[in-house]
Specification:
four-stranded mixed beta sheet; globular; alpha+beta; single chain; binds coenzyme A; Aminopeptidase
Amino acid sequence: MDSEEKLQLSSGDLPLIFMKECAPDEYFLSNIALKRQMRGLGMGSRLLAFVEAQARQAGYHKVSLRVAIDNLDAKRFYQRHHYATKAIDLESNKRVSVLGPGYQSMVKELRNDD
Ligand SMILES: CC(C)(COP(=O)(O)OP(=O)(O)OC[C@H]1O[C@@H](n2cnc3c(N)ncnc32)[C@H](O)[C@@H]1OP(=O)(O)O)[C@@H](O)C(=O)NCCC(=O)NCCS
């Protein structure tokens, strides 16, 4: 897809924004979500372990993600799994209100014994 086609795709109601989601040395986890009735049963923890194994297999030593600042349950979940806050991004708040109040970038350094 060339840049002209990309521009056409993004010329809907939303403004065009560019966000750097992760660093080149990070394996990026984008949006995990379980159906309500499936939450709190350990499946999210298993999914994270699976993603981290994939990252290792692909030769990465870090996994990163973005979580909405006000998603306290998910932030607690990631912290418990040793994800640390790397940065807070308030930009989405000002530019695209439907995207919520901003994001925290969280990163986990993978150790061999994890
Ligand atoms: C976040 C999520 C993937 C975690 O998966 P999970 O299977 O529920 O997590 P586990 O059972 O392994 O661990 C439970 C922890 O998940 C977190 N959690 C997040 N949302 C939860 C919910 N609605 N119900 C229960 N636990 C939730 C809590 O930290 C909980 O631990 P606690 O005992 O300290 O409250 C899942 O709850 C989910 O899909 N939430 C909604 C979507 C979301 O916020 N995704 C993250 C986007 S970055």
